Amino acid sequence: MIDYGLINTIKTKLANDEILGRNGIEASVHSYCPSTKNYPLILLELEEIWSSLKLGAQSGFTKIKIKASTLSQALSSRESITISDRIRQLLDGQIIPTEDGKTGIVKLTHSTVDIPSTMKPMSVHQYFEILIRDL
Question: Which domains are seen in the chain, by residue range?
């Protein structure tokens, strides 16, 4: 399926990044919530899939929304924000190939920073849209 193929492509791209690797995060990129959590943690989730009805020869497209959550147990939110900024640099504006030969354009739509008052993990949630056109 194209949606989980894109998530795996993004997961591989994040896991192979040198800067995230230097911080020991390459093994902490997941597309599911692991049973044992090692922080910092990057969690990729499929939020929404939207597909148009193909009315013309080249009018069809698919929009996939993905959420990238960065969780950290550091006392300040600096670690989560630094990691999420690197994710934005790696993904925003990128063209990602799909398994069926099409390409998807990644765009950051918005981010949410959650700083809880208790000793819960700090988190930054980034929402990306991937637009895949049928050419």
Answer: 2-133 (3.30.2000.30)
